[in-house]
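[Automated response] Your request has been received and processed.

Submitted sequence:
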Amino acid sequence: MTLSALALAGVFLALYLTLYKLGYIGRLVCGTGECETVQLSKWSTLLGQPIALWGCGFYLATFAVATAGTTERWAASRALSVVLVVLTGWGVAFSGFLTYLELFEIHAICRYCVVSALLTCVLFVVAVLDLRDYRSARSDV
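Generated structure:
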């Protein structure tokens, strides 16, 4: 359930940034102005879509898999735990790449992006701990 709640928070964060990028929000409430610099940079789109929209997809996928894991049918599924570790691990790697771009290419740090990167790292740690709990529970049998 923790993974679902964290992923849902990520959905709302990425949705806010997506709405800005698509022009539905006039200014980002950031305090530094660097968030807009990052969001308007050439690195803010991938395959013609805002990076934040891809983030929405990542968080929605994580939410869906984590929520499925709370159902009776999938509660004991090791496969879902592995999928969550792989999915969130990919998210950590991609967030690391985006952080690199902010630091060394764009030369601006978006606070929302930092929160998203930290959230992704927490999701990964929780997913790994969940998989470890699954393995230790199975070895006790």
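Summary generated for your ticket: The mean pLDDT is 90. The two ends are 24 Å apart (CA to CA).
If you did not submit this request, please reply to this message.
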